[in-house]
Amino acid sequence: MGQLDSLLEKNRAWANGIKKEDPEFFQRLSSQQAPEYLWIGCADSRVPANQIVDLMPGELFVHRNVANVVVHTDFNCLSVLQFAVDVLKVKHVLVVGHYGCGGVKAALHNEGFGLIANWLRHVQDVRDKYQDVLDGISEEQDQVDRLCELNVVEQVSHVCQNNIVQEAWRRGQSLRVHGFVYDLRDGLLRDMGLHIGSDSEKDAIKQSSVDDLVLRPVRSGRQK
Q1: Nearest to 167 by CA among 81, 65, 46
Q2: Most exposed residue of 43, 74, 78, 224, measured as fewest CB within 10 angstroms of its CB?
Q3: Whole-angstrom distance, CA of residue 4 vs CA of residue 148
Q4: Active site residue 101
Q5: 3 state DSSP class of 6
Q6: Which pLDDT does position 188 carry in this prediction?
Q7: Per-residue confidence band for 32, with pLDDT thresholds at 50, 70 and 90
Q8: Are 85 and 40 in contact (CB under 8 A)?
Q9: 216 belongs to the catalytic site
Q10: What's the distance, Cα to Cα, between the start and end of the chain in Å?
C-alpha cells in the first residue's frame, strides 16, 4: 500500500481504542443507525462534522458538497434528505457553512473552471440576489464571510421549500431546519437565527435572519 499504510495503521489504532472503551460498540453500530440529525455541510477537509458537534458514529447523518449547496435538481443531496427524513426520521436538518469557504470565495469572484464553475453558479445566484448588501462591505474577506452567511440562509430556504420537508410537515412529523456557520478560527458554530419547524413560519424567520445580517457588522458576532 505504501503511502496508505499509515492510514490503515491509524484505522487499526482507532478501532482498538474504541473497542477498549466500549467492547460492544461496533456490534451495536452494525445493527442499526438512529441519528436525530442530518448535517448538510461543505466538503472542506477542515470541517469534520462529527468532531465539531462531538457526536459518535451513528449519531449524525451527513451530506457534504462544495459550499454546502442544496439544489432541487441534485438527486444526490435529495436522496440523502429523503432517506434521513422518511426512513431515519431525523428531527433536525442542520445546514452548516463555514467562514473562509473557498467555494464561496470563488463564486464571489467568478472563479473556478469546468464542472466546479457550473456548480458554483448556485452560490453566484445568492451573490447576485444580495449584491447590494455585499457592495456595502469594503474588505474582501468580510464580503466572503457575509456571502457564506447569506448562502446558508438561502440553502436553509431551499431545504424548507423541498417537497420532502413539506410533506413531512404536512403529515405532522417533528422536523426542524437550522442554519449555522462554522468558524475555523475558534472551532465554534455561529447561530444564524434560522430554526424553522413549519411552512407557515419559514418566510418570516428567513427575513428576520437576513435583516439581522444586513444590520450588523460582519465580525460583530465572532471572536477575534
Answers
A1: 81
A2: 224
A3: 34
A4: yes
A5: helix
A6: 96
A7: confident
A8: no
A9: no
A10: 43
* Closest C-alpha among 188, 213, 166, 195 to residue 53: 188
Q: Quick check: is 63 catalytic?
A: no
Report d(CA 218, CA 223) in Å as an integer.
11
pLDDT tens figures, 122-180: 999 999 999 999 999 999 999 999 999 999 999 999 999 999 999 999 999 999 999 99
Q: Residue 143's Cα: distance from chain center in Å?
A: 19
The whole-angstrom separation of Cα 64 and Cα 181 is 14
C-alpha cell, 167 = 410533506
Q: Is 160 in the active site?
A: no
**Which entry of 63, 77, 98, 160 is annotated as an active-site residue?**
98
Please enumerate in sequence order all residues whose Cβ is within 8 A of that of 145, keeping only pairs 6 or more positions apart, or say none.
Answer: 99, 100, 218, 219
pTM above 0.85, yes or no: yes
Alpha-carbon span 99 to 223, nearest angstrom: 13
Q: List the one residue out of 166, 165, 193 whose CA is nearest residue 179.
A: 193
Model confidence at 182, pLDDT cuts 50, 70, 90, reads very high
The one-letter amino acid code at 118 reads: N
